[in-house]
């Protein structure tokens, strides 16, 4: 390991591993902003506020999950402190995620404070929708700009099979509650799985059109030990070909600031997005990092390099300087990208998506 040039003052316990050949003096630390060694500016953080969830989606979690003990999870105050430091470093978009963020006790305490943070223009959330009928009005009042809701199927029995526990009708109520609360451009996320939901892609698009929702299809990623991903994987292109038999898809240059590429259907307001980490690698324009509920800063979803913020937070509570320094230094371990395609049956990233935050 080659770490002496990166951060001499970093205690070894705060870094898991390092990208070789990183010279901190060559990092482009423009004052007040985060720029990695490939010149990519980080302006977007995905913050997981819990590893727990009320579903157990088959592609995301093992059936028997062991969740983190409470003392290993960042407190909501610690989450807020981390967010404040990122915003001070030029981050203007933050996605609250998990696990299921809305099952975290007192999640609204944090969300209200994030919504009031000057400089954070774009506070958004990804949820499975199960708690949205209760929380949608509060999220709107707190200043959340948009909601992504995961929905892989419109069939109740299939929904139960995929989520192992979930109730589709609650999620549909959640979608309706988000719209009733005044959220615009609410987006559905559907993971594409051959033999599981590929017969419903047309119906999912029609559902989105009818309800004036956006919809993104996601290529399945090899995160955590789940067998058989090679047989369920479907590329975005294959799905577009299938959809083209029913809809006219017009490529669009619109962006929501994330990895999705969008298509439009004439006569509809819905945007149909594709998140294609295999077939259209988007690493060259990556603008984001992820923070797990444990306070690990992962500069790349598909790699194992991490900066551990929790010991720093707990060693000097309230002192933002070491935290700020660690976050700036994490730019030195942001790898160029991932290689998911080679790993579908033997993932190099052993943590599940629910641990890292989607
Ligand atoms: N619980 C919330 C939800 O389901 O929306 C937020 C967290 S979840 C981990 C975020 C997103 O990651 C969801 O849209 C989910 O479908 C997606 N996801 C989980 N595991 C995945 C995998 N292995 N490949 C692709 N997407 C995955
Ligand atoms: Fe929970 Fe979301 Fe993972 Fe499903 S995808 S198990 S809802 S964290």
UniProtKB/TrEMBL annotation:
Cofactor note: Binds 2 [4Fe-4S] clusters. Binds 1 [4Fe-4S] cluster coordinated with 3 cysteines and an exchangeable S-adenosyl-L-methionine and 1 [4Fe-4S] cluster coordinated with 3 cysteines and the GTP-derived substrate.
Catalyses which reaction(s): GTP + AH2 + S-adenosyl-L-methionine = (8S)-3',8-cyclo-7,8-dihydroguanosine 5'-triphosphate + 5'-deoxyadenosine + L-methionine + A + H(+)
InterPro entries xref list: Aldolase_TIM, Elp3/MiaA/NifB-like_rSAM, MoaA, MoaA-like, MoaA_NifB_PqqE_Fe-S-bd_CS, MoaA_twitch, MoCo_biosynth_MoaA/MoaC, rSAM
Cofactors, names only: [4Fe-4S] cluster
Signal sequence extent: none
Stretches assigned to coiled coil: none
Record-listed [4Fe-4S] cluster 2 binding positions: 283, 286, 300
Domain Radical SAM core: 37-260
PROSITE patterns in the record: MOAA_NIFB_PQQE, RADICAL_SAM
Binding-site residues, S-adenosyl-L-methionine: 59, 99, 150, 221
Function: Catalyzes the cyclization of GTP to (8S)-3',8-cyclo-7,8-dihydroguanosine 5'-triphosphate.
Organism classification: Bacteria, Pseudomonadati, Pseudomonadota, Betaproteobacteria, Rhodocyclales
Protein name per UniProt: GTP 3',8-cyclase
Gene3D superfamilies: Aldolase class I
The protein's assembly and partners: Monomer and homodimer.
Enzyme Commission number(s) of this protein: 4.1.99.22
Family: Belongs to the radical SAM superfamily. MoaA family.
GO biological process: Mo-molybdopterin cofactor biosynthetic process
Binding site for [4Fe-4S] cluster 1: 53, 57, 60
Segments for region (Disordered): 1-22
GO molecular function annotation: 4 iron, 4 sulfur cluster binding; cyclic pyranopterin monophosphate synthase activity; GTP 3',8'-cyclase activity; GTP binding; metal ion binding; S-adenosyl-L-methionine binding
Biased composition (Polar residues): 8-22
Amino-acid positions noted as binding GTP in the UniProt annotation, renumbered to this chain: 46, 95, 126, 187, 288-290
């Amino acid at each position: 390991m080659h770490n002496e040039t990166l951060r001499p003052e970093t205690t070894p316990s705060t870094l898991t591993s390092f990208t070789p050949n990183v010279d901190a003096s060559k990092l482009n630390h423009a004052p007040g902003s985060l720029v990695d060694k490939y010149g990519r500016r980080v302006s977007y953080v995905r913050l997981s506020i819990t590893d727990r969830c009320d579903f157990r989606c088959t592609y995301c979690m093992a059936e028997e999950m062991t969740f983190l003990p409470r003392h290993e999870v960042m407190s909501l105050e610690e989450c807020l402190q981390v967010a404040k430091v990122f915003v001070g470093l030029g981050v203007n978009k933050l996605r609250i995620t998990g696990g299921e963020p809305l099952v975290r006790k007192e999640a609204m305490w944090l969300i209200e404070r994030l919504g009031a943070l000057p400089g954070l223009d774009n506070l958004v959330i990804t949820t499975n929708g199960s708690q949205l009928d209760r929380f949608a009005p509060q999220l709107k009042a707190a200043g959340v700009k948009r909601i992504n809701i995961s929905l892989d199927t419109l069939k109740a029995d299939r929904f139960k099979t995929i989520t192992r526990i979930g109730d589709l009708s609650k999620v549909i109520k959640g979608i309706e509650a988000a719209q009733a609360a005044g959220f615009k451009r609410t987006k559905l996320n559907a993971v594409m799985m051959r033999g599981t939901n590929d017969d419903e892609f047309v119906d999912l698009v029609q559902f989105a059109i009818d309800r004036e929702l956006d919809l993104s299809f996601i290529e399945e990623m090899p995160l955590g030990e789940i067998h058989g991903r090679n047989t369920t994987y479907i590329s975005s292109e294959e799905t577009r070909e299938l959809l083209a038999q029913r809809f006219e898809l017009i490529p669009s240059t619109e962006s929501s600031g994330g990895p999705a590429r969008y298509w439009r259907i004439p006569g509809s307001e819905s945007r149909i997005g594709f998140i294609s980490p295999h077939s259209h690698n988007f690493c060259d324009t990556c603008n984001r990092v992820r923070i797990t509920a444990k306070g690990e800063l992962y500069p790349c979803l598909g790699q194992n390099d991490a900066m551990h913020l929790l010991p720093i937070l707990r060693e000097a509570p309230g002192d933002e300087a070491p935290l700020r320094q660690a976050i700036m230094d994490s730019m030195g371990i942001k790898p160029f990208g991932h290689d998911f395609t080679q790993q579908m049956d033997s993932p190099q990233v052993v943590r599940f998506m629910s641990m890292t935050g989607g």
